[in-house]
């Protein structure tokens, strides 16, 4: 009997703590006049940064959080702080970060959705963020193990962050898949084709037009004019996973690098290939593969095998990728292995020296994981 009473008391205390925490969190949410939740398959971190920068320039005191390549908390003055974690990422960190924002006088938050599993996406939106404006950047097949293998499945998963009785900003293409989940939500499409080309110029780094269009639409809904928003966006730092285009001289060759390592699904990779490469380019693919993403490796190998490449350099889980490439018809003389444990960039240059051509374009794709910051900095001309 005493033991049972002990457990009842412990359970009661636990529930009381949860109740008080939830009450305090809802109070903190109530002190934020604008809450924005950014979800989607690709571009979430970049769109989060662009929205925050536009609102910041429009005099909003905005705190932003990205969870992509490098999880960052972005303060109202634009300074950034790496989010330190003990162990794997946990969605409950949003409670602490929202408290930090409110304690520092924030009136606006722009948070990137950090959940992949549909039920956790729903919890993030309905319990932790309760957004006024939701953003879904795009709907593409990714994380098939938890989100499904079709666009319909992925749309259903992403729909869990659509704000109830709020506003959803998305692309016209994604709107077609998401409309049926928006019965009490106003859907506002953001079409980059309706914007002048000048809106995508003047950035110190590469931007995706769709991302800029979405960010501008959100800023417009928040009462910020386009000129003010764009001025702020052009001052924003790019995300660590942002596409980089750079050039350098090495091995007596002019090397152009298109780093799209963060875009690790085939649809996004193909879009970037078509966007950045010209027919006359002598292309070398640098494919970094993860051992736990063999399905994705197979998809990318199939994609590149059909492209007019001069060589493919494989890093990471190379054995599986090489076998897949050979099965897809890529000849042995076009396949090179990159050792990344030590002197990775030197090893890359040694391979480049063996490949014919005075001007080469390296298309770096697959995944960032496993490549050091030093390697990526040198790859991008740093």
How is this fold's topology laid out?
Blueprint: H1 2-30, E1 34-39, H2 44-57, E2 62-66, E3 72-74, E4 80-82, H3 93-103, E5 108-112, H4 118-129, E6 133-136, H5 144-147, H6 151-158, E7 167-170, H7 172-178, E8 186-189, H8 209-221, H9 226-233, E9 244-250, E10 253-259, H10 266-276, E11 283-289, H11 294-305, E12 311-316, H12 318-327, E13 335-337, H13 344-354, E14 359-365, H14 373-379
Parallel strand pairs: 1-5, 1-6, 2-5, 6-7, 7-8, 10-14, 11-12, 11-14, 12-13
Antiparallel strand pairs: 2-3, 3-4, 9-10
Helix pairs in contact: 2-8, 2-9, 11-12
Write out key terms for the chains shown.
alpha/beta; about 375 residues; 2 domains; 8-stranded mixed beta sheet; about 20% strand; 14 helices; single chain; UDP-N-acetylmuramoyl-L-alanine:D-glutamate ligase; Protein-Tyrosine Phosphatase, Chain A; 6-stranded mixed beta sheet
Q: What does this entry look like structurally?
A:
It is built from 14 helices and 14 strands. Strand 2 (62-66) and strand 3 form a beta hairpin. It has an eight-stranded mixed beta sheet with strand order 4-3-2-5-1-6-7-8, sandwiched between helices. A six-stranded mixed beta sheet has the order 9-10-14-11-12-13, sandwiched between helices. By secondary structure, it is of the alpha/beta class. 41% of the residues lie in helices and 19% in strands. The protein folds into two domains: 22-233, Mur-like, catalytic domain (UDP-N-acetylmuramoyl-L-alanine:D-glutamate ligase), CATH 3.40.1190.10; 244-379, Mur ligase, C-terminal domain (Protein-Tyrosine Phosphatase, Chain A, Alpha-Beta Complex).
């Amino acid at each position: 009997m005493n033991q049972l009473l002990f457990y009842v008391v412990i359970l009661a205390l636990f529930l009381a703590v949860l109740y008080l925490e939830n009450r305090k969190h809802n109070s903190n949410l109530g002190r934020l006049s604008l809450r924005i939740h950014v979800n989607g398959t690709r571009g979430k971190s970049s769109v989060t940064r662009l929205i925050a920068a536009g609102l910041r320039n429009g005099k909003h005191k905005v705190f932003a959080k990205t969870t992509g390549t490098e999880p960052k908390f972005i303060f109202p003055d634009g300074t950034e702080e790496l989010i330190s974690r003990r162990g794997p990422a946990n969605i409950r960190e949003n409670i602490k970060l929202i408290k930090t924002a409110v304690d520092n006088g924030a009136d606006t938050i722009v948070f990137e959705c950090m959940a992949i599993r549909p039920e956790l996406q729903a919890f993030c939106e309905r319990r932790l963020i309760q957004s006024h404006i939701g953003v879904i950047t795009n709907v593409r097949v990714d994380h098939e193990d938890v989100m499904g293998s079709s666009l319909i499945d992925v749309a259903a998963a992403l729909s869990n962050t659509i704000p109830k009785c709020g506003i959803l900003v998305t692309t016209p293409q994604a709107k077609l898949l998401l409309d049926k989940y928006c019965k009490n939500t106003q859907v506002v499409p953001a079409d980059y084709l309706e914007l002048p080309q000048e809106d995508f110029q003047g950035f110190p780094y590469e931007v995706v037009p769709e991302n800029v269009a979405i960010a501008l639409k959100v800023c417009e809904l928040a009462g910020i004019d386009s000129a003010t928003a764009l001025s702020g966006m052009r001052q924003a730092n790019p995300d660590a996973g942002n596409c980089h285009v750079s050039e350098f001289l090495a091995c007596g060759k002019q090397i152009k690098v298109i780093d799209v390592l963060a875009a690790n699904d085939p649809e996004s990779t193909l879009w970037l290939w078509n966007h950045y490469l010209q027919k006359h380019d002598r292309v070398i693919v640098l494919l970094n593969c993860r051992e736990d993403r063999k399905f994705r490796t197979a998809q990318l190998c199939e994609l590149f095998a059909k492209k007019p490449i001069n060589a493919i350099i494989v890093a990471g889980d190379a054995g599986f990728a090489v076998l897949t490439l050979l099965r897809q018809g890529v000849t042995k003389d076009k396949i090179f292995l990159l050792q990344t444990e030590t002197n990775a960039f030197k090893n890359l240059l040694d391979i480049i020296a063996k490949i014919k051509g005075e001007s080469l374009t390296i298309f770096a794709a697959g995944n960032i994981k496993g490549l050091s910051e030093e390697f990526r900095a040198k790859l991008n001309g740093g």
